[in-house]
Design a protein that fits this description.
The chain is of the alpha/beta class and about 180 residues long. Helix content is about 35%, strand content about 25%. It has a 7-stranded mixed sheet, sandwiched between helices. Helix 1 crosses helix 5, helix 3 crosses helix 4 and helix 4 crosses helix 6. It has a single domain, classed as 3-Layer(aba) Sandwich (Pyruvate-ferredoxin Oxidoreductase, domain 3), CATH 3.40.920.
């Protein structure tokens, strides 16, 4: 099993953190992992993306041009990465701020209204974990105990008290996931 994932959005949405949590969780689960971030100098508000590869075998290169999964959090990322999803692959996105929704019919498409849900909860910082929950419902590549370990590893010790909130957000993402196009 090898899963090549691109996570893309604005800086400040937790794009890189989501990728790091997935990568650490994969390591804790004894998988081979590659984590390759890409972001501009402006970071917050600028575009950011991260490629994460999870595999049971050695990973030959962290550079990926087409993905099994694209997790999209803004319109610029949708425009850039929709066509990089392999046929039969997965595109999951938060529809907040998306004006041109994906149109492909050869991929699985789901939405997670994470921004709306995080706003209702008054916890915008867990927006990315809500999205991650939606992804993990479709592709349960990481077992929950390893997500917990990944959160412990990627969050500074002073934020470990927030791990239960993050885990709750993951569960919410699993609940609010909506299918748009399923093959």
């Amino acid at each position: 099993m090898t899963e090549e994932i691109i996570i893309a959005g604005f800086g400040g949405q937790g794009v890189l953190s989501m990728g790091k949590i997935l990568a650490y969780s994969g390591i804790m689960q004894n998988q081979e992992v590659s984590w390759m971030p890409s972001y501009g100098p402006e970071m917050r508000g600028g575009t950011a993306n991260v490629t994460v590869v999870l595999s049971d075998e050695r990973i030959s290169s962290p550079i990926v041009n087409s993905y099994d999964t694209a997790i999209i959090l803004n319109q610029q990322s949708m425009d850039k990465f929709e066509n990089t999803v392999k046929p039969g692959g997965l595109l999951i996105y938060d529809p907040n701020g998306i004006t041109h929704h994906p149109t492909r019919k050869d991929i699985n498409i789901y939405t997670v209204d994470a921004a709306e849900e995080a706003g209702k909860l008054g916890m915008m910082k867990v927006f990315n974990m809500i999205v991650l929950g939606g992804f993990l419902k479709i592709k349960p590549l990481i077992q929950p105990e390893f997500i917990h370990k990944g959160l412990e590893k990627s969050l500074p010790a002073r934020h470990h008290k927030l791990i239960p909130e993050n885990e709750k957000a993951i569960e919410i993402g699993k609940e609010i996931l909506k299918a748009v196009n399923v093959l």
